[in-house]
């Protein structure tokens, strides 16, 4: 899944990183992989050295609005801030921080998407990946994405139809190239 996360200190220095490893058969020692719980934020939080760093002074950055598991994990590890680059209409649970007493009491500073273009690219990647995986919930997932982020959803559909990302994956194209390609698709979908 195209989701990544890092934990930084108050100055923005990266202390740990993680990525979604649900569909990966192997991973570094200490990471969760090949499991439904192998989420990016969870992996980034697991690699944060809690003895060396005060989590209250740390910020969890993630490409995608955290799911209930990762929102809970952020609270349970006492990070001071959470920032995400793209809304996630299907499982995004940032609203839990304002609704669930336990999460509210954690006083985690939550900052949502600040860059429309970046959000569009990330959402298009997510849509393309779901189309490839074809899970049972695909229809409902796409409907929700289409309502909230129509252009990104269209760009994701087009990327899937053209097979562009599959081909770039096979060729081992650098991330920068992939992002440029998705950005172009976003521009023509707009
Ligand atoms: Zn998650």
Low-confidence stretches: none
Integer count of domains = 2
What helical percentage do the residues reach? 40-55%
Residue fraction in strands? 5-15%
The total count of helices amounts to 9
Structural class: alpha/beta
Tell me the radius of gyration: 17 Å
What's the mean pLDDT score?
96
Q: Give the distinct bound molecules.
A: zinc ion
What general outline do the C-alpha atoms trace?
globular
The secondary-structure element order is EEHEHEHHEHHHHH
What's this model, at a glance?
By secondary structure, this protein is α/β, with parallel strands linked by helices. 47% of the residues lie in helices and 14% in strands.
Structure description:
The chain is built from nine helices and five strands; from the N terminus they run ββαβαβααβααααα. It is globular, with a radius of gyration of 17 Å. The chain has helices at residues 40-46, 68-76, 96-99, 101-105, 116-133, 138-148, 150-162, 164-171, 175-189; strands at 4-8, 14-19, 59-64, 81-86, 109-111. By secondary structure, the protein is an alpha/beta fold. It has two domains: 4-111, 3-Layer(aba) Sandwich (Cytidine Deaminase, domain 2), CATH 3.40.140; 116-189, no CATH class. Helix 7 (150-162) packs across helix 9.
